[in-house]
Please model this.
Amino acid sequence: MADTKLTDSSNDVDGQAVVPASALGNGNGVKPWTAITQSKWFGYAMVPLVFIVAVSIWEAISRAGMVAAIILPAPSAIGKSLLELVTAPFFPKHVQATLYETVVGFLIAAVLGLFLGSIISQFPIMRTTLYPYIVAFQVLPKSALAPLFITWFGFGVASKVVMSAVIAFFVVTLNTMVGLESYAENEYLLMRSLQAKRWQIFTKLKVPSALPFVFAGFKNGITLALVGAVVGEFVAAQAGLGLLVEVYNFQMKIPLVFATIIVLSLMGLALYGIMELLDRKIVFWRTSSWEQDIL
Amino acid sequence: MVNNHQAVTVRELSKVYVGRQGSVEALREATLDVPSGSFVSLVGPSGCGKSTLLKIIGGLITKTAGTVLVDGREVTGPQSGVGIMFQTPVLFPWRTILQNLLLPTEVYGLKKEDYVDKCLKLLDMTGLSQFSKAYPRELSGGMQQRAALCRVLAYDPELLLLDEPFGALDEFTRERMNLEVLRMWHLNNPAIVFVTHNVGEAVFLSDTVCVMTPCPGCVAKIIEIDLPRPREVTLMKTRRYADYVFEIREILGV
Model:
């Protein structure tokens, strides 16, 4: 649905742009420049182009010796390090650790967030008693808790899982709360007129209405979960990409630091992509993406 | 006056909304009868309390004072046998049209299979048969509202409460929808309370027009519409129709 709409609107743009061009008298069936720049394909083509240009400039600056390699290594050096990193025998272990911490942390955050968001929005007494504490906990910079979690849960994955869950749960909670209240009044009145029980209104109206918001929360949550895992690894860890960043940085192997960061962002991108896919699959009725713009 | 033949009995009904800005009187001592099987319109400008009256009859909001009986019983909340339609179609976007029509079976705890044929038949009658598996967003506003009409009719309500159901539609579509309502009404003959701000529409459809004014929320006059049925569009060209419309506009001062 969204794709067809995109095509439609780009067609509109094309159609509109033809008029001023002929008015200027330079159009003999030649597509005016504005129509090209505004077309969808031009945008897609620009993405790699921008990348190539930026990387080339960066490479040129590095080769000219304008910035010390220890501060900003050349893209070619980073590329070489990236290859070295991903082929290293120890690499899978670290990826696995961070991935595990992120995914498990996120799952805990998702379950906890859905549960808390539901009870807070459905029971006024819970809102009154619980919500202030949740907000108070949210405003606390949670990275400050990382050393404590290491003390409590050890150097292994457990402490990172906790860190990642703690960072990610609030956004899921908040989106669930907002989502469960997002139904239209007439939808509620219809359910009431059918003499629907409270749980029926919840499962048949409120939950489906909440899904677009919940997925917006999940998409934010999974990214935050990765942040939590890396922060935890920074403090103390036996494995993980965050640990690699720390170690390479300490050893002044800056190209490898960059390479690890690239792997981390690719991991974040992949996790986000999975969420986006699930979102489109499950919330198939969504026609606009405005919900995503809220947070 | 209160007898078994009244689908709805309203006596000196008042409603005061209490909000943070103080209280707002929405309805003042409204009195009205809706005989079984009759078509009654509540007509008046915005803020005359017609929607409030309808929702109190439907048990969706509470009254402040007075009496409301539906089928001889005091209204304490939403009742079975009463169908409500709103200005918006209220079709859930995650359900197909047929699934939307079957939503009440799930809520009522009825067997879905018993109603599938009936819903499909209603969709067929309203020209929506090929859309049973479509999602609401694939239908136009008028089609969506027709589907909402099917949903309410599938469960044979004895009382149908229509809250400006076609107010958001264009003139032509609305006219067609009104004829559709009349056609459906003749089939099962439920009592209908129809809220509108369109005087012509009220006269065309109704046995009785209840004219309401924002005094606030008073029933100014109850007018019996003595026009032949079944009603055709040509009726709107007649003198008697025009007289009724004029009389009501006079009361409303428009």
User: Anything to note?
Assistant: The mean pLDDT of chain B is 91. The CA atoms of residues 10 and 247 of chain B lie 24 Å apart.
